[in-house]
Amino acid sequence: MSESAAVRETEVVVIGAGPGGYAAAFAAADRGRKVLLVDAGEQPGGVCLNRGCIPSKTLLHMAYLINEARGAEQWGLKFAPPEIDLAKLRKWKDDVIGKNAGGIRQLAKSRSVELVRAWARFEDSQTLLLSSERGGPPDQGRVRFQYAILATGSRPTAIPAFNIDSPRVMNSTSALELPNIPRSLLIVGGGYIGLEMGTVYAALGSEVTVVEMTEGLLPGADRDLVRVLQARLKKTFKAIHLNTKVAAIADTGNGISVTFEPAGADAKSPAPANAEFERILVAVGRTPNSEGLGLENTKVKTIARGFVEVDEHRRTADEHIYAIGDIAGEPMLAHKASYEAKVVAEVLAGENVAVDARAIPAVVFTDPEIAWAGLTETQAQQAGREIVVAKFPWGASGRATALGRNDGLTKVIASPESGRVLGVGIVGVGAGELIAEGVLAIEMGGTASDVGMSIHAHPTLSETVGEAAELVSGTTIHLAPPRR
Ligand code: FAD
Ligand code: NAD
Hints:
With about 475 residues, the chain is of the alpha/beta class. The chain folds into three domains: about 10-70 and about 75-155 and about 285-350, FAD/NAD(P)-binding domain (3-Layer(bba) Sandwich); about 160-285, FAD/NAD(P)-binding domain (3-Layer(bba) Sandwich); about 360-470, 2-Layer Sandwich (Enolase-like, domain 1), CATH 3.30.390. The chain has 13 helices and 22 strands. The strands form five sheets. Strands 1, 2, 3, 4, 5, 6 and 17 form a seven-stranded mixed beta sheet that branches. α1 (about 20-30) runs parallel beside α8 (about 335-350), α3 (about 55-70) crosses α4 and α3 packs across α6 (about 190-205). The termini are far apart. The site of flavin-adenine dinucleotide has 36 residues, from β2, α2, α3, β4 and α8.
């Protein structure tokens, strides 16, 4: 198509077809808008479907099966060591992605949302240029629109010193490709990606070392939850070095030689000065994709770290442009993007709706999983806020014991005055599913007593939520009462 090619007219154009973008396009179409959805990727679904949530959880399921089979030996059930067919594993992961992408295409079609594969950038506040090549001529024409929803997501944050042009240095995208099962893997960054991908590679047989520059894994999560996970990771990973940074790396031909340096006081498990690893995974956070979009041709403003400035309706400083998902700020989570998408669709439909979620759940899909929602104990302490915290250890759960996994903890954080549930934190197998009850309780303004008196099926792990809630204002059946 030539530069003078087609000018499409639409009411709403959405840039980026990730969990923010496709949800916004569908929700706007469902409210009667004419919608065009533009994404540069080969298939829709964004980072989450193609190189994030879904492939990582597919691989984590494999890891779970391997670990369960290994763990069953202690109960008298011995399986032969797994034979891992990497090509088949990759194919299964790609099939899962393909099926979901096909579903998104179908859903777009069913709503007459036109899906266009192109790089988009703004010519002005109401015109987009579409190109086949990033930054190239607008060979796919222009789009004139009433409103644009920016949902271009984020990318792995790169560390310039690690830019040594070696395939042994991976980011989350290349690590998810499973190039091989490295004998040894260094993971830089003890956050979500580092620990999830570490769980995958350790289960497949790699010796995993984690180096984290702060004093604890998963900054942001309450320490009592992290301690339970860390106790298990100490057994499945080769080493975890906190308060430690990587000063330099070099490809030796056989591996990556790494020089470590302290990043703060009290490195409890100090790293050696130097070590060699077959591969490195760099997982030190993500950077919003706000460059190259022609934002300078609009009134949109960017703020710290490149996020786009938005108000509670997710409107940018430009009245024609909204922004949602990773580009619009933390937390960079798929369900936060989809929630914002629904808010914007309603705002465009003339509803007086704002982003006002009381609880955005966070789930780290490690083994065991960690999940939290609403107020954390750490946040309450930092804010000097009075709270009641009740903790139910999974050692007292019949179901957790039957699963051979009573390494878990459920806690409920409540208001001392009203008893309302303000936060829930869980570590243990299946925590990611269990947290939904906490989210609902917080959103509905439920009290701990409401949750405690709701009947939880026996024997389930959900009983730990009920029992923790009961403990907020009294005793619970499966824990001894405090001494009188
Ligand atoms: P994205 O999903 O990043 O999609 C943005 C889309 O915009 C992309 O398809 C891109 O091609 C397109 N695009 C960018 N620029 C342009 C342009 N100029 N023109 C056209 N198209 C463009 N979150 C969870 O909630 N749960 C998880 O389990 C989870 N696991 C993760 C695992 C990994 C390994 C990673 C990396 C992330 C994970 N996340 C998870 C985070 C999650 O993927 C993101 O929060 C989510 O994808 C953000 O959605 P989004 O719609 O904002 O953008
Ligand atoms: P992260 O922010 O979760 O963790 C990065 C970690 O790297 C932090 O602990 C940080 O202190 C550490 N770090 C930073 N620089 C370092 C350095 N030079 N040396 C050593 N450590 C360093 O980031 P991530 O793991 O890259 O994940 C990015 C984001 O993607 C997450 O924050 C989350 O929003 C999203 N994500 C979510 C899920 C999920 O929901 N299950 C899974 C994966 C990713």
